[in-house]
Amino acid sequence: MKIEDVVCPFCGCLCDDLVVQVEGNRVVNVENGCTLANEKFMGDHRLETPIRRSGKKWERISYDEAIAETAGILLDADRPLLYGWSGTYGEAQTIGVHLAEVLGAVIDNTSTVCHGPSIMAIQEVGHPGCTLGQIKNRADVVIYWAANPIEAHPRHMSRYTTFADGFFVKNAFRERKVIVVDVRETDSSQIADEFVKVNPGGDYAILSALRAIVRGKRDIIPPNVEGVSREQLFRVAEICMAAKFGAIFFGVGLTMASGKYKNIRNAIELTEELNRHTKFTISPMRGHWNVYGSNEVFTWITGYPYAVDFARGIAFYNPGETTSVDILRRGECDACLVVASDPGAHFPRACAEHLARIPTIQIDPHVNATTHLSQIQIPVAVTGIDAEGTAYRMDGVPLRTRKLFQGSHPDDLEVLEKIYAIVREAKG
Amino acid sequence: MRVILKTRPREKPRIPIEAEEIIPQNFLRKNDMKVFEGNKERTLEDLFFVTIEGPAVSPDQVEVVLTGNTGMIKRVGEYMNAGRIIIEGDIGMHCGNFMSAGEIIIRGNADAWLGREMRGGRILCEGNASHYCAAGYRGEKRGMRGGIMEVKGNAGDFTAEYLSGGDVIIHGNCGDLPGVEMRGGTLVIGGECARPCGNMTGGTCMVFGKAQRVLPTFRSNGSQDMDYAGKRYRMNLFRGDVANRGKGTLMIRA
Ligand code: SF4
Questions:
Q1: Residue A71 C-beta-side C-alpha neighbours within 13 Å
Q2: Could you give the ipTM of this predicted complex?
Q3: Structure confidence by residue, pLDDT tens digits, A178-230
Q4: Out of 3.40.50.2300, 3.40.309.10, 3.90.420.10, 3.40.50.740, which CATH number does the structure's domain A48-114+289-427 have?
Q5: Is the pTM of this model over 0.90?
Q6: Does A190 reach chain B within 8 Å, measured CB to CB?
Q7: Does A154 touch chain B (CB under 8 A)?
Q8: Where are the alpha helices (DSSP H) in A198-258?
Q9: Is A34 near ligand 1, meaning CB less than 6 Å away?
Q10: Inter-chain contact B180–A262, Cβ cutoff 8 Å?
Q11: Closest CA to A426 of A103, A104, A107, A105
């Protein structure tokens, strides 16, 4: 069976034009997808049943047993942490937030290790952003700052920027100028009209210098700023000011470089400065396919986008204090539920060690690095393949992912609702 | 009155305690003080051996002494408006949040957000202070607004972020971006730091050690002599941050 207009549940582009061929409960072909999408749909090796660590071995247990034990561990904890959420859909994330509130837990999503600093900067100075459709149809200057879309978001350039013809940009490849700013050459920098090579950690200074140039204070700029010549900075500023519509996309190379959210704030303030001359927007290149959705869901329920601490019964948010990496590094939490993420692969070693010390439960379809740190793993359906639900694209547009076949696993929502029901009853 | 709070041994000593009720004025009238250990509410006596010596008729006659394993206790001295708190060892985050008067002395190190948005009074940290010392809460446009913050050791990144008033004196080194978004007050750094005063709009920052990676958007404005710790230093003056139409003063040892 061929299914059209399938949404890809891999990266924040959420491409919604895939054509997927299904035989029984297996995907056998994917059209329009990039190699990452093909691997996501077709290289799908699932854990069959829930497992529990027993000494040095794993034993198979029933879903009911795994769910009851998970609820018990979370109820016993004085500082439980519920982490992940970016690889599942909005309806399941909603139950996760309610579960955190009833438990008095900290709930955090993967923004904590990607674009959390972007959100902090937006909270300080706002967000002059727009949808990807606007950029595709209007932008004649596109800047990728500390992002490498060819590898991380392979269809971003072909669907929305360099190679995508738009309503007002009829011949994108010739009419759009692409600027890449990075600390090293990448596949993306090789197709740029202008490549700005910055010293590692030098982005903040470059952004400040560009702001000053756009404000007409050229005389203050020294001959070289963090490895970039004054002439190149002047040229980049001129390209930006001459644009009819410009768009900056930035990646984790900027959010996780020294200065973190201050880099993003500076980039937003440069965008504001450019808006005195022309129309300019700025957008984060969100990684996990529904990480934006987790920020949306957390915010509409708690008021905060990630790192929400319910220990006192009310929501408290303070990245650096209530973020999961910090909580784990300090050894604060005494139980952890990981949903739709793999902190074992992405977190610093000290955090992984703490996860291994405390009872950690993972809800995830696949065996991954976090499995080796966990006490229990509960396999679930993969959203966008055998479960459907709402996800948010990197520009905040909600899309409905599809269920391509009926699988044999329950989905995230079913498992979380059962855990929530037990916890709710115990709490009265 | 002298109140001595000695921590009791805990089964899970890494779980943070939130104890904003530990301020001098509360010991005059409260006898049911609550603290939180993780998500569990406890009484003060559950977590501390409490000894009270002598009388007091006003909060400024109350001295609270914390001893034992105090490094995971947060929010001590929050909204304090009189009296004195002495912490014999380390202290957790948010010590002296929003305090308006009185004195806090920390003999050990202080965790992050020491004196967050303090309005008055004095904090002396004899060890090191972590990140966001004398800064603001997330999204808040003004950090510390008044009072004196003195750290004898080093401070972390984003020290005095959004500083709007008062004096911050760090005798050791600061991390990255001290005085970022600063708009008033005085920041003195005795040691080294990196990228001081990004985006500042007002106030004065003096760096008596080496400043690394000074931002290109500060305009040179002459030099002058300054005294610090009993010595006279020649300081280069800068105005900025020009990127932000700033009119702050940055002084860096010549
Ligand atoms: S670019 Fe991203 S969303 Fe689009 S097909 Fe590739 S992995 Fe999927």
A1: 21
A2: 0.94
A3: 999 999 999 999 999 999 999 999 999 999 999 999 999 999 999 999 999 99
A4: 3.40.50.740
A5: yes
A6: no
A7: no
A8: 203-214, 230-242, 252-255
A9: yes
A10: yes
A11: A103
